[in-house]
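Researcher: Here's the sequence for the chain we discussed earlier.
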Amino acid sequence: MNNEDITIGSTINELTIVEFIKKPDECDKYKSYPGTWVRCKCSCGKEVVAPLYGIKRGMIKSCGHYKGMSSAKVLERFHKTHPEQPNAIYYEYDGETKNISEWSRITGIPRTTLMYRINNNFKPKDIFKKEGNND
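Model: Thanks. This is the structure I predict for it:
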């Protein structure tokens, strides 16, 4: 992925590029990262200022909202909001019903990302939105 491929509105993992900026003077976090910096909006709504290098390489995937959220915790939250599916998490999309692991394998989107999006009532088309796909 070249810098030319990245534009305002591009989405990489959970971050959508809002603005290209110069490296903040007061930056402690990521201070050794070279090159272009960006202001992003995370899928949870928080703003993130980070080096594009770290985002493109997958070292920075979100604002940090996944840290500490284990798969078991995500599953527990899902079961509270979807008691009709006690043993497995199935999701219907585009006329097909598959469990979350199958959807993850097919789409290449991590299970935790799919679960987060489902638990936070994302629109179906946004649940399966792939990295860099702005459609």
